[in-house]
Amino acid sequence: MAEQSDGVDFALAAYREEGDWQVAQLAHDVLGDIETLAHALRRFPGDGGAVGMVAVDEDFFVIVRVAGADVRVLLSDFTAADEWEIASSAIDFLNLPMPEDDDEQAPAGDLDLLGDMGLHAMDLAVLLDDEELYPDEMLSDIARRLGFGSQFDEAVGLASA
Predict the structure, then answer these.
(1) 3-state secondary structure of 139
(2) Any bridge partners for residue 12, and if so which?
(3) Gap between the Cα atoms of 59 and 83, Å rounded
């Protein structure tokens, strides 16, 4: 398995404070596993919790949403668990079996974790099905739909579309 933070393209926390979205970088030392990442996200003062977005090796992403004791997780490609510690941790957190060699790429976890913010499971599933998009592009689209697209793009260095 790879080192815990090797290959991380970026890791951000997004949260609402007094109705306005805030975006902050997450330190790489909190990306070893889902529990550590969730603990780090609890430190943000957001109204309704915080959303963590981690993109790895231009290959997959993890979204972790924390609100109090509630932790919800979405892994964009569960087959990444064979190679990446954070993906393996997501599979463990979700109590899912590790992928087999012949498994196809597929998301794992809570597709509706952002539903109450306006991005419902069906829309997220359609986005995840787009094999032409890289994880940073998918996360940028998610951020835009939630209302913090420009802050997200600026934080990760994406050119504004």
Answers:
(1) helix
(2) 25, 53
(3) 11
